[in-house]
C-alpha cells in the first residue's frame, strides 16, 4: 500500500522543489518543435518531455485533452507518458477536469485512480460544479489507493467568476464552499491531506480563507500566462507554503531540445525554491 498522496507530494517537493510542469502538446507547439500534428509527433513530444523533466521535476501534469484528440493512439501515448514519468520518480497529476454524478463519476474514478488502470495517475483534477458531493466516488477511491484529487476552486478564466464568486445562502462564495469542503476532507491528516485545490495564480484578490485547507494549492498561470513570483506572494499570502506553481508554455517554448527544456524548468524551479516555500 502506497503512502497517501499528500505525504508523497510533500516528500517530492522537499527533494525536487516546488514546481509542476504542464505537458500540453498543443498542435501549434508540435509545429514549433518541427513535429507532425499526428500521433507520431505526439509520441516524439511526449518522449522528449520524459527525457527533459521526469528525472528532475517533482510533479508533471499532462493535459489529457491534447492526447485524447488523437484517439486511441493518443491515449496510448498518454499511458506510456504516465508510466515513464512515475518510473523516473516524478509524481503525475493528470489534468482531466472531469465532473459528473453517480455511476459515471465512479467510472471516471476507476479510469484515473484505480489500481491496475493504465491511466491511473498519482492525482487528477476534477470539477466540483455539480456539487462537491458528486466527487465522493473519486475522493473515496483516491483515499483507498493513496492517490490525490485536485479540485477546481477559483480559476483564472473570466467566465469562471460568475459561478465561482457567486454567493451561497449563508453568504460564502461558491469557491469558499469548495475550499471548506476540501478542508473537511483533509482535517487532521499529517503532513497534509490529499485533497487539493486549483486557484489560479493570476486571479488577484481571492477573497478566500485557505487557512484550514491542510492541502496543496495548484496555481496554474505561472510564467507565460503572466504570473510571477510577486503575484504568488500577493495572491496567496500566508498560504504560500502550500502552493505548487504550475508552468507549461513558458518552459515548453524552449523545446524541442531536451537539455534546453530541462535547463528552463530547473531555472523556474530554483526561482521558486529561493522564495522559500513548498507544499
Describe this structure in words.
This protein has 279 residues and is of the alpha/beta class. The protein has one domain: Aldolase class I (TIM Barrel), CATH 3.20.20. The protein is 44% helix and 15% strand. It has twelve helices and eight strands. It has helices at 5-16, 27-32, 39-53, 64-68, 71-87, 102-113, 136-145, 161-164, 174-186, 229-236, 249-252, 258-274, and strands at residues 20-23, 59-62, 91-98, 123-126, 148-154, 195-199, 217-220, 243-247. Strands 1-2-3-4-5-6-7-8 form an eight-stranded parallel β-barrel, surrounded by six helices. β3 (91-98), α6 and β4 form a beta-alpha-beta unit. α3 (39-53) packs parallel to α5 (71-87). The longest helix is centred in the N-terminal third of the chain and has 17 residues, at 71-87. The two termini are 23 Å apart. This is Orotidine 5'-phosphate decarboxylase. Belongs to the OMP decarboxylase family. Type 2 subfamily.
